[in-house]
Amino acid sequence: MTVTTDLATIGNVIGGEERSAASGETFEKMSPATGEAISVVARSTPEDVHAAVSAAGDAQPAWAARTVTERGQILRAVAQAMEQERDALAATVSAETGKSPRDARGETDGAIELGYFIAGEGRRFYGKTMPSATPNRQAMTFRQPLGVAGLIIAANTPIANVAWKVFPALLCGNAAVLKASEDAPQTALAFARLAHDAGLPPGILNVLQGYGAEAGQPLVEDPRVAVVSFTGSTAVGRMIARIAGERLAKVCLELGGKNPLVVCDDADLDKAAEAAVLSAFSNAGQRCAAGSRLIVFDAVYDEFRADLVERTADQKVGPGDEHDFGPVINERQLENMLAAVERARAAGATVVTGGERLDRPGFYLAPTIVENVDAGDEISRTELFGPITTLHKVSSFTEALEAANASPYGLTAAIWTRSIDRAQEFARGVVAGGVQVNGPTYGFEPHVPFGGERDSGTGWREPGTEALDVYSDWKTVYVTHDPEAV
Ligand code: NAD
Fold first, then answer.
1. Whose C-alpha lies nearest to ligand 1, atom 15?
2. What whole-number distance in Å separates Cα of residue 381 and Cα of residue 156?
3. How does pLDDT run across 153-164, given as a tens digit for each residue?
4. Separation of 232 CA from ligand 1 center, angstroms?
5. What is the 3-state secondary structure (H, E, C) of 328-385?
6. Does residue 179's CB lie within 6 angstroms of at least one atom of ligand 1?
7. What is the pLDDT of residue 338?
8. For residue 276, what is the enclosing H or E element?
9. What pLDDT digit, counting tens, does each position of 86-128 carry?
């Protein structure tokens, strides 16, 4: 037996074939858990993007010509293949993100459920029928595919992010070019291999590896790409909206969050603290829906804070199932977080716990709570995408709602209260695409629409059946018949 130290090579998938980048260039992908290289990845350029969009454009008409029921059957086979390979897929997710195998399996299960849910829409795909004011005339609506869908994703929940976009895009009759995250290249490749083995025709799902500026932006610029669906940071989302807006392409942006979790004086404090810790730190805080601002009534502030600090001290940080959460995705992100906490400290904030890198290989940040900050401070307004949360004291419901809304974002929000009046007022008044009463700030299921307001997105919702609206356009058809001709 030969022992090899070669790293896995992760290529593009174009027209059903795995290929290196046209330039032959590669980059190394590091394990967040160890800091060591785990794969060598194709570094795509506009030439690869052009080839992938061409392959998608060539394959799309035949795919769209199939019935949606048949497309749904093929996508169901893809979901079945994912289920059969669930542990291997989850192992890839775990290796690329550093999250525990348990968390990676949970994420993979969600992606499989989404696959089945969207495949089932192939038996519905409902439009509307409407009466007309003219006799013997009816109106009805049909969903139409758009053509080539450009999909660009983040790495935080990589298999879920792939599934969230690919299943609805393909069900609607589009062909897709998926720009994988440079931090999770193998997950996207593994999905594409499974999909092709399960019967997806070549060219319907193409995968591009590489960096955003080199492989993502040319996809957004390509006039043959009819819809761009992006999950990532608000800064990149703005750039994408500008470029795609110039050529009037449809654009769905699922962006960042700085999500408030409000704890009222009538809350179940024990459960609220448990939800706060999960919201702030699970998945190493790398959730768009993470609870990164904890807003607490002064009457229960000290009690809640003590419980929160104790629970945070109990958090086990490391790579395996015995840990509560793992590393952040890369060195650069970790450095950004440390610098942001230092700036907050310099500006007068108190770092109650954490704020430092763990003394072990890999990209680990201790769970961090920052106090004595105003709603307008940088650390209260900027998404850090790590295990960092801020604590704010308020004296009334009105102040809590104001504090919750004092953010440029509007993705999710949670309130802990036993009062139906407070719960309802909060749900009505908070600026957010999703609200939980007596729950965490995250945890929206595959059949439920999810998306944000303000700087969190453009108002589209993924997943749920609402995702179909991103990837299809409505066509309205009138039919007039002549009763005399019967
Ligand atoms: P990012 O914006 O840096 O990168 C996301 C993707 O965009 C990557 O694939 C990257 O290569 C690509 N990209 C970068 N520059 C580009 C450009 N100029 N043109 C085209 N593509 C480009 O984000 P990230 O740090 O990888 O991910 C974290 C962000 O994603 C956070 O803001 C988080 O809140 C957000 N997110 C949002 C949701 C949601 O559903 N709202 C879900 C997950 C993550």
1. 212
2. 21
3. 999 999 999 999
4. 2
5. CCCHHHHHHHHHHHHHHHHCCCEEEECCCECCCCCCCECCEEEECCCCCCHHHHCCCC
6. yes
7. 98
8. helix 269-281
9. 999 999 999 999 999 999 999 999 999 999 999 999 999 999 9
Query: HEC profile for 126-178?
Result: CCCEEECCCCCEEEEEEEEECCEEEEECCCCCHHHHHHHHHHHHHHCCCEEEE
End-to-end C-alpha distance for the chain, whole angstroms: 80
207 touches ligand 1 (CB under 6 Å): no
Centre of ligand 1 from the C-alpha of residue 233, in Å: 4
Alpha-carbon 136 to chain mean position: 47
For residue 178, count other CB atoms closer than 10 A to its CB.
Answer: 27
Nearest Cα residue to 150 out of 71, 77, 251: 251
Q: Is the pTM of this model over 0.90?
A: yes
Whats the size of the chain, residue-wise?
486
- Residue 453 a catalytic site member: no
Residue 345, phi-psi category: left (phi > 0), alpha (psi -120 to 50), beta (remainder): alpha
Identify whether the C-beta of residue 295 lies closer than 8 Å to the C-beta of residue 450. no
SS3 of residue 417 by DSSP = coil
Q: Would you state the structure tokens that stand for residue 163, as one six-digit string?
A: 């599934």
Nearest-CA residue for ligand 1 atom 39 is: 254
274 sits in which H/E element: helix 269-281
User: Which residue shows structure tokens 């907050």?
Assistant: 344
Q: Is 236 in the pocket of ligand 1 (CB under 6 A)?
A: yes
Buried-exposed string 3-27: b where 16+ CB fall within 10 A, e elsewhere: eeeeeeebbbbbbbebebbbeeebb
